[in-house]
Design goal:
The complex is a heterodimer.
Chain A: H1 2-33, H2 40-56, H3 61-84, H4 92-113, E1 130-132, E2 135-137, H5 139-161, H6 163-173, H7 175-180, H8 185-211, H9 218-232, H10 237-257, H11 263-277
Antiparallel strand pairs in A: 1-2
Chain B: H1 2-5, H2 7-20, H3 28-53, H4 61-79, H5 83-106, H6 110-130, H7 132-135, E1 141-142, E2 146-148, E3 151-153, H8 156-179, H9 181-191, H10 193-198, H11 203-229, E4 231-232, H12 239-252, H13 257-274, H14 281-295, H15 300-314
Antiparallel strand pairs in B: 1-4, 2-3
Helix pairs in contact in B: 2-8, 3-8, 3-11, 3-12, 3-13, 4-5, 4-6, 4-11, 5-11, 8-9, 12-13
Classes of the chains: A mainly alpha, B mainly alpha.
Amino acid sequence: MFAAFLQYLFSGLTSGAIYALAGLGFAIIYNASHVINFAQGEFIMIGGMATATMVAAGVPIYLAIPLAMVASMLVGVAMEKFAVEPARNADVVTIIIITIGASIFLRGAAQIIWDKEFHSLPAFSGETPIAVLGATLMPQSLWVFGISAVAIAGLWYFFNRTMFGKAMLGTSHNRLAAQLVGVAVKKVLLASFALSALLGAVGGIVVTPITFTNYEAGIMLGLKGFSAAVLGGLGNGTGAIVGGLIVGIAEAMASGYLSSAYKDAIAFIIILFVLFFMPSGLFGKRGTDRV
Amino acid sequence: MNLMTARTGGLAVLAIIVTVAPVGFSNSYFYDVGVNAMFNAIVCVGLNLLIGYAGQISLGHAGFFALGAYGSGILTEKYGVPAIGALVLSAAVVGILAFVVARPILKLKGHYLAMATLGIGIIIHIVLKTEAGITGGPDGMSLGNFKMLGFTIKGDQMWYWVTGVLLIFAVWLSLNLIESPVGRALRAVHGSEVGAEVVGVDTSSYKVLVFVVSAVFASVVGSLFAHKNGFITPDIGSFFGSVHFVTMVVLGGMASVYGAVVGAVILTLLPQLLAVVEQYEAMILGVIMMGTMIFMPKGLLPSLLIMLKSRRAAS
């Protein structure tokens, strides 16, 4: 009874951590630019696919991982420079189409550069399960928790303790004011995409040994990351992390106790309920409109 | 240029194009593509009322399209309901569903609204995939021809003329809706919702109305598509299907009924042309989506009209 619950909890926390990283990526870009980046899931896919194919080709893993991170960041920066930046003042629908176009482009490119097959990575520290109170925990899940925690702590430090991070936060609160005190807003935008791509790649790399990856893996991850970010209230970093964990755990519980067929629907059912009763997410500020 | 703006002028041009196009059709494949282009155009004309005129994005309309298709499939195949009855019944159910979700959903703004409509579309898609007992699951289901009053619509050519008439009717209907007091109220909602409220426009009722109308458009086309194709799979209701519809609307030009038609036709023909370079199809589609939005944020048709106008002024 309890063992089964614990088992579901472990798997929920594992996927929840990845949704949290994806949700954070959404939040960072949204804060810097008020853009929802529908290609967020593709960053996760690129991280996983690039690492997996390099390792399969014989590149040592400690070299493949940083290379994949850099590749993903470059894609993020290129996307900001060539697709988002030129459409700075377009309306919401237009920018949504642009980022969806970017995600379709990246999926098409991944299919050509790599293939349509599923790829995996060897687990970082073996496949020997750890017994915890009757349930089993894979060592790779511990890597997922650990790396996610380190990434989140690193982000916290960056935004609260470094000058550039503070400049990014300032820009998210008030663009014009940030510009007036000398923040290079364009750099902030680029950095937000680079950072999101990095986060996505980290999540994608660390979870690939568990979930496998292929060129389409980013679609659902991205949409669930989006629902995590909306659940927490758009632009709220802590909210996105909590939202991601809620989505992951609810998904695991529902597929354990109710029906595994509807596993993918859970995130969207939760989000609809929340939006119906709390239109700005769990921790979002009530928006006011200027007339 | 007055011809394009005048209601009757535009309709006449559209009717002429639909009638004359088959002159260049050398075989039934052309008719087939033509029918699909017009199916998409009808959905987009409805969706454009919502996105272009009311300013409310929906990333879930393929879900309503799929519900119409499966409603027709299940009712005609499993319960022996006549095709037209199944079409009307499915459209009514979709309309009611849209009405029920519209109020809470349309309270949302921007990205929250995108998320909610996206969620509804995805849930519909997953239900159709999962309930294999009723829908046949991922394998899809087959259904028969569209019979009505002892008359059967079959063959690409016959479908072409039926769809052509329906497209003209759909365009006429939307033009009338836009020019009616409701349409004026809608444009006010798009311009400034609060402003519209202040002068006494019941904004939420109008938004709900348009949401329901656009969902019913999608459902009816879904039913017809199912009969024409004779076979449907849940993937017609996928997130990508919804994205496709929205892209057609935005590509052609928001807040332009004919723009929606142009966008639908272009994006239906595109994969046919790209079939030569099938491998790169997704990449090219992505580039076209990004490029159009960056260089012509208003969409193709309005941008072209502006270019024409400025050229005339110059000469």
